[in-house]
Amino acid sequence: MARYELVKRSVALITLTNPPVNALSSAVRHGIAKTMERALSDPKVTAVVICGENGRFCGGADIREFAGPLRGPPLVPLLDSIEAGEKPVVAAIEGVALGGGLELALFCHYRIAHFKARLGLPEVTLGILPAAGGTQRLPRLIGIPAALELITTGRHVSAQEALKLGIVDQVTEQNACEVAVEFALRAVAKPLSSRRLSSLTTPCPPNLDALLEAVTMQIQKKARGVMAPLACVQAVRAAATMPYSQGIKRESELMATLFNSGQARALQYCFFAERTAGKWTLPSGAQWNDIKPREIRSAAVIGLGTMGRGIAVSLARVGIPVIAVESDKKLLETGRQMVIGMLERDAKRRGVSASHNLLKFTLGLQDLKDVDLVIEAVFEDMALKKSVFRELSKVCRPATLFCTNTSGLDVDALAGVTDRPQLVIGMHFFSPAHVMKLLEVVCGPRSSSEIVATAMSLGKRMGKVSVAVGNCPGFVGNRMLKPYSDQATFLLEEGATPEQIDKALEDFGFAMGVFRMSDLAGLDVGWRVRKESGLTGPDVDPKNPPRRRQGRKYCPIPDMVCEQGRFGQKTGRGWYMYDKPGGTKAKPDPLIQNLIEMYRNRYGIQPRNITDQEIIERCLFALANEGFRILEDGIAARPEDIDVIYLFGYGFPRHRGGPMFYASMVGLQRVLERLEHYHQAHPDVPHLEPSPLLKKLVACGSPPVQKWREHIKTMHSHL
Ligand SMILES: CC(C)(COP(=O)(O)OP(=O)(O)OC[C@H]1O[C@@H](n2cnc3c(N)ncnc32)[C@H](O)[C@@H]1OP(=O)(O)O)[C@@H](O)C(=O)NCCC(=O)NCCSC(=O)/C=C/CCCCCCCCCCCCC(=O)O
């Protein structure tokens, strides 16, 4: 796990060998201890270079080991021996030096980085802190403000920025290992005392307290309820106010409080869930690592509304030529200007030049005859989408892949009107499509494994987190949203206010509560869907008892809000009021309170006191319950996929892990009992009836979320 060689007759070259990222597993730590001991005790050796195999220095501690009992040599004493030695030790950083990897480098006396390397202390994103001396050593090296920013955000820096900050001593375009060996030979005669970070005093800014206070407030505002960044601030304060050895003690005390916390477990789960999501398998047995995706050299986007514009930008900025299509001249010109503007702003932000030349705008589908892939993003209307796909079948060459950006319509029905159903798939982007990271890849029963592989790989190329899901109304994300938002409106009827419900959800960690989120998305969208499905509007059967539709409980308050022309932020009025149409600052609106009160009076509903606990349980357990049904139905292959969808598409707080992980943390038994309780109180709400899979998992002793798959695999998979 650590290879030892003698090079240039007097330099010990220690190579970490733990693919793919040379994580500091117990075996690697053993390897470092043994090889360092050998280097320090061999009189032939005058200097040491530490590097990583396969052009990657080190990705940090082995996160998988955090789940079990800690074994092997602890990191800090091991690294102390590197710094304390009398022979210069140089870190040759290629690829990445992250977390414990950078901390290892900070114990070395010198650091040489390849110009493409990335460095950082991302532990905070895993719910912990850099507890191998990082919080004490980085501030001594680069000062409190810069260290504080890197440690509390976990941001990676380029080699060039690391050089500017003073983290590395040299950046090279050559082989970093060879440069480091030469560097080490030159360092042999030089004194090491000033290179030992533990012996330095932290340069302290005069406004330390104000700085720490400002950063704390910023964190509390941005990451409400998240523990790790606040602990990082405390650890950095210790670097400024305590001697090194006491600072290290403080660092490890703070780490101990974080290490076993639910937040750390949730964040580490998210890290692996995101990687698991890319590993799709189809019922045919085809899977992510054996199907070659097609190369996409050109694409077309049909429809330049909000979604189409974002999709066109996402494609062009990764170098894919795009033909954008609209149905009339005026819409085309507006779309063109918007796309160019978005592309320019995006390029400016990224410090690159905008790729205008990759975009072509046209009114005619005939121009698409030679493209590799088409993404349809027209209005959410089945008849319109079908007519577009019929037309495309006539125009495009037989090998062109067809994708639809529908947010919930039947992908198989669309495939059915084409001449190539096996080459049709859903690519459900989230708005704004050039910003949001999530992509649901909706596999119809006839989608070929090649098109699944291509859509997943294209998503990755566009920087998206892509999740393969099956075809059903609303797919995964929007299907689950219904029980969640239904509970919120039922709670309004029963006595809560939009502000109270939103506050409970925001205190839980959502960036926005359900009502503020609906105002942002536009209330008219859901209203149209409800009208089309006969839940409201003139087509509703008058024989329906009030507040019941299709045999179940129905709350018409959202329809009443829309009937008043209140469509959310865009009209300046929705569940809240805004200072102007398009305004974003939500204020409670007495008119909404009146509307709800009148509604309660009309139906004789006596409002009751509703606790935040009930709001969280009803909204989130209903959400997870639908997740269990989705797993049963084989629409999502794994709970991780559902969680990733909610983390990246719906603002579910990452430190809670996603709805399914959250349910497992609360305890499946408890979730089951609470759902049974609420379902008894509301027997006409089927979403509150515990799903068979939840019951099955509880009967099996509530296994951890990673093991649920074993209980699902017998069920029918659409994936
Ligand atoms: C940028 C990357 C490194 C690479 O990205 P990419 O090329 O895109 O590849 P990926 O798909 O992401 O990864 C490839 C596979 O590698 C796996 N992987 C990656 N990193 C790790 C890792 N660090 N550990 C394990 N596995 C890793 C990944 O899952 C992929 O596997 P697979 O293909 O899915 O199977 C990118 O991967 C990346 O960003 N990685 C994470 C980097 C990171 O966050 N590093 C920090 C890790 S935490 C750390 O270093 C902490 C150090 C402090 C010291 C710790 C001391 C611990 C003891 C504490 C005791 C506490 C007190 C106890 C109290 C008590 O109980 O009493």
UniProtKB/TrEMBL annotation:
<dbReference type="InterPro" id="IPR006176">
    <property type="entry name" value="3-OHacyl-CoA_DH_NAD-bd"/>
</dbReference>
<keyword id="KW-0443">Lipid metabolism</keyword>
<comment type="pathway">
    <text>Lipid metabolism; fatty acid beta-oxidation.</text>
</comment>
<dbReference type="GO" id="GO:0070403">
    <property type="term" value="F:NAD+ binding"/>
</dbReference>
<dbReference type="InterPro" id="IPR029045">
    <property type="entry name" value="ClpP/crotonase-like_dom_sf"/>
</dbReference>
<comment type="subunit">
    <text>Monomer.</text>
</comment>
<protein>
    <recommendedName>
        <fullName>Peroxisomal bifunctional enzyme</fullName>
        <ecNumber>1.1.1.35</ecNumber>
        <ecNumber>4.2.1.17</ecNumber>
        <ecNumber>5.3.3.8</ecNumber>
    </recommendedName>
</protein>
<keyword id="KW-0511">Multifunctional enzyme</keyword>
<keyword id="KW-0560">Oxidoreductase</keyword>
<dbReference type="InterPro" id="IPR008927">
    <property type="entry name" value="6-PGluconate_DH-like_C_sf"/>
</dbReference>
<dbReference type="InterPro" id="IPR036291">
    <property type="entry name" value="NAD(P)-bd_dom_sf"/>
</dbReference>
<dbReference type="GO" id="GO:0005777">
    <property type="term" value="C:peroxisome"/>
</dbReference>
<feature type="domain" description="3-hydroxyacyl-CoA dehydrogenase C-terminal">
    <location>
        <begin position="615"/>
        <end position="702"/>
    </location>
</feature>
<dbReference type="GO" id="GO:0003857">
    <property type="term" value="F:(3S)-3-hydroxyacyl-CoA dehydrogenase (NAD+) activity"/>
</dbReference>
<keyword id="KW-0520">NAD</keyword>
<keyword id="KW-0276">Fatty acid metabolism</keyword>
<dbReference type="Pfam" id="PF00725">
    <property type="entry name" value="3HCDH"/>
</dbReference>
<keyword id="KW-0413">Isomerase</keyword>
<dbReference type="InterPro" id="IPR018376">
    <property type="entry name" value="Enoyl-CoA_hyd/isom_CS"/>
</dbReference>
<keyword id="KW-0456">Lyase</keyword>
<dbReference type="Pfam" id="PF02737">
    <property type="entry name" value="3HCDH_N"/>
</dbReference>
<feature type="domain" description="3-hydroxyacyl-CoA dehydrogenase C-terminal">
    <location>
        <begin position="474"/>
        <end position="578"/>
    </location>
</feature>
<dbReference type="InterPro" id="IPR006180">
    <property type="entry name" value="3-OHacyl-CoA_DH_CS"/>
</dbReference>
<keyword id="KW-0576">Peroxisome</keyword>
<dbReference type="GO" id="GO:0004300">
    <property type="term" value="F:enoyl-CoA hydratase activity"/>
</dbReference>
<dbReference type="InterPro" id="IPR001753">
    <property type="entry name" value="Enoyl-CoA_hydra/iso"/>
</dbReference>
<comment type="similarity">
    <text>In the C-terminal section; belongs to the 3-hydroxyacyl-CoA dehydrogenase family.</text>
</comment>
<comment type="similarity">
    <text>Belongs to the enoyl-CoA hydratase/isomerase family.</text>
</comment>
<feature type="domain" description="3-hydroxyacyl-CoA dehydrogenase NAD binding">
    <location>
        <begin position="299"/>
        <end position="471"/>
    </location>
</feature>
<dbReference type="GO" id="GO:0006635">
    <property type="term" value="P:fatty acid beta-oxidation"/>
</dbReference>
<dbReference type="InterPro" id="IPR006108">
    <property type="entry name" value="3HC_DH_C"/>
</dbReference>
<dbReference type="Pfam" id="PF00378">
    <property type="entry name" value="ECH_1"/>
</dbReference>
<dbReference type="GO" id="GO:0004165">
    <property type="term" value="F:delta(3)-delta(2)-enoyl-CoA isomerase activity"/>
</dbReference>
